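Q: Hi! Curious about what Two-component system NtrC family response regulator looks like structurally. Here's the sequence.
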Amino acid sequence: MILIVDDDAAVRSSLTFLLKRAGFEPEAVPGPNEALAIVRREAPQLILMDMNFTLTTTGEEGIQLLKQVKIFQPDVPVILMTAWGSISLAVQGMQAGAFDFVTKPWNNLVLLKSIRTALELNEQKKEKNSPLNRSDADNKFHFEKIIGQSDALMEVLGTVSRIAPTNASVLITGESGTGKELIAEAIHANSPRMKEAFVKVNLGGLSQSLFESEMFGHKKGAFTDAYIDRTGRFEMANKGTIFLDEIGDLELSCQVKLLRVLQDQTFEVLGDSRPRKVDIRVVSATNCNLPEMVATRTFREDLFYRINLITIHLPALRERKDDIPLLARYFADKQSDINGLPRVSFSSDAVGFLQRLPYPGNIRELKNLVERTMLVSGKSLLDVSDFEGQCLNLGNNQPVRKGGSVNFEGMTLDEIEKQTILQALETHEGNLSHVASALGISRAALYRRLEKYGIPTDK
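A: Let's find out. The predicted structure is below.
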C-alpha cells in the first residue's frame, strides 16, 4: 500500500488515479492525524507526503510529520510533495530522512520513476544476503576493469551491485586518480541500461558560455558560429546513463540550468523553444567537499540533494594497500602487451616499497611509476633501486633509509604532498603539464593542490 497524505482533495484524487493505473494500491488521507493512525498499526510500502496541511505555507508541519513517521516506521521511504517556494524546506526534509522530493505540479513520469526507485532500493535493503565476496561479484556482476581485493574495495563493489539495477542518482566521491570513472562505468554496465549510451562529461572543463550548447545542443543559426545543428550530451544519453565528472567545479549559473533538467528530465535546445524529454540515469563524481561548498554557498543545496540519492566514497590508494601488488602486476602486464615487451616480475622488497609510498596521485600515479620504471630499467626483475630512481625523477625524492623504506616520519600527509609538488616543480622547472603528468594527476587537480598549499603558479 502507498499512503498519500495531502489536504487537497483534488491532489488526493489525482494521485490515487495515477497510482492505480500504474498498478499500485493507494490509500489517501487528508492530514497528519489520519496518517499517524495508519503508520502506528502498519507499514506502508511508501508515503507521498505534502508539506503543508493548514493555511500556513512554512512547510514545518510536513517536517514534523516526517519526523513522527520515522519514529514509528523508520524504514518506510517518504517522498515529499512541495511547491517551488518550499524547496529549502524539502531539503531539510531530505536531511531528516525523506527519500526524495517532487515539486507541484508534478510530472507523472518523473514521480512514478522516483516511486519505483524508492521501492526497489527498499526491497533490496530487506534482503538478507551474505557479505559480498569477490567470487560472488564476478559471478553476478561485471567488474572486469576494476582490480583489487581489499576490504575497502569489496565494500564499494557491494554497494555498486546493490544500486546498479535501480535508477537512483549516484554521487561518487574520492580523491583524483582513485578510479571514479571506472565505478561509474560499472554502475552503467550492471544496470538495465547497459545496452544504451554511457555519456561522459567533464564539467570542470566547461565554461559558462559553452555549457548550454554542450549539454543541451543547439540549432543552426542559434548564435554566431552555429553553422550546423549540434546534439547535446543529454540527448545523446537518452535511455542510458550520463556521467557528470568534476561536478564540484561547475559554475553556479550552470548549476541552476542543470538542476532544472534533473528535476523534470526536460530541456530546450538552443534556438528551439520546444521542450524535449529525456530518460536518463545521472551518475556524478567529484573530489571536492560538496557539503562544505554548500555551507559556503558555492554549490547549490537543492542540486546537492538531487544528485546524491546514493553516495559512494572511493578510498585513496594508501587506504587499500592490499590492492597495490595486484595493480602493479596489472599495469606491468598491460604495458608488456602494448609494447611487445617480455613480462617482468617484482622482488618482494620492491612490492613492499610500492606499498609504503603515499601516492598523492593515487592509482594514476602508481600506473605511471610502474610503466616508467619498466621502460627505463629494461630489466626482467624490478627491485627497490629501480623504483627509487624513478621516484627521484618524479620529484618524490624523500630520504631513503637502509632497506628501501621512505622516511616520512614526523610528516603529515598534507606536508608530504606539498613537498612532493614543490620538488616536482623544481625538477620540471615549473612546467605544470610535466609536473601533472609526473605526479599522475590532471592539470585541474594540480591547480587545486597549488591553491590549497598556497604555492604560486608561476614557479
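A: A fun detail: Residues 108-126 form the longest helix (19 residues).
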